[in-house]
2-nitropropane dioxygenase
Amino acid sequence: MQQNNRITSLFNIQYPLIQAGMIWASGWKLASGVSNEGGLGIIGAGSMYPEVLREHIQKCKKATQKPFAVNVPMLYPDLDKIMQIIIEEKVPIVFTSAGNPKTWTPILKENGIQVVHVVSSVKFALKAQEAGVDAVVAEGFEAGGHNGREETTTFTLIPMVAKEIEIPLIAAGGIATGKAMLAAMVLGADAVQIGTRFVASHEASSHLKFKQEVVKAKEGATQLTLKELAPVRLIKNKFFEDVQKLYQKGTTPEELKELLGRARAKKGMFEGDLEEGELEIGQIAGLIDKIQPAAEIVKEIITEFEAAKQEVAVL
Ligand SMILES: Cc1cc2nc3c(=O)[nH]c(=O)nc-3n(C[C@H](O)[C@H](O)[C@H](O)COP(=O)(O)O)c2cc1C
């Protein structure tokens, strides 16, 4: 592994490999499992009530001596409480997403916390840099979960963002192997953030049925939808088809909101309702063929990354 990597030095971790913060998937077990193996584990606060988050942070601190982070989607209703807990519990690193980085970055940094913001375009990467974040995650159209409207793929987004910003860059979207990690780093990323592959881990808190659905998914199994509300990449299950039917007849954001209702994501990903629930996952699910321990995933990716470097050296 290369020395003096900007991300490994920034976070004080062994490998430039970050396990993404994910609602209904990344609790303390997954985050500490990845951090213990030398990557950076992230607790996804987006599906947690404030006191549940506190519990996850405290358990994570007991389960690992290594750095870990919390991801906070900033459209959260209890945002003030969430940030207060993060500060009180002395979480070393925060990944913010879905909001304006100007609001919280200065406050978190005053409290000695490193801040990373997730973006999906060059424009937002520059805004995040201006807001004073320590690094950005640039997430391509392939990624699981909520996404940008521009439909820029990881392969095109990374070199464009790398060209414009000074601060360290983390690539996300469609990366699940050591070869993809190397490709992203060749394109200008300092590290990678991986979501979908870690959903298919024993430690992910998602329902087993959802994990099995991820393993079953083939190329073309997902699509970005609900652009009028918040664009999200989903497995094409019954709920997705219901959304499509509304589009076909000509729909309004209000009607879409009503169909989406509350707790669709929980129903699908946490409770395992594969018909009626929302199943957020990335395009790269088509490549994933088993559920594994998180530590094994980290080891496999790093081993393949190192081997791929040797392979390309002879090209
Ligand atoms: C099930 C699931 C839930 C997610 N939840 C969040 C979230 O709460 N906050 C966030 O910033 N990103 C979320 N994401 C996006 C990931 O953090 C990550 O950037 C993305 O998964 C990377 O692309 P990949 O899935 O192709 O690896 C989620 C992704 C998935 C698959």
Observations:
- The pocket of flavin mononucleotide is lined by residues 20-23, 25, 44, 46, 71, 73, 97, 118, 139, 142-145, 172-175, 193-196, 199, 269, 280-282, 284 (CB under 6 Å).
- The chain has a mean pLDDT of 96.
- Residues 208-284 form one domain.
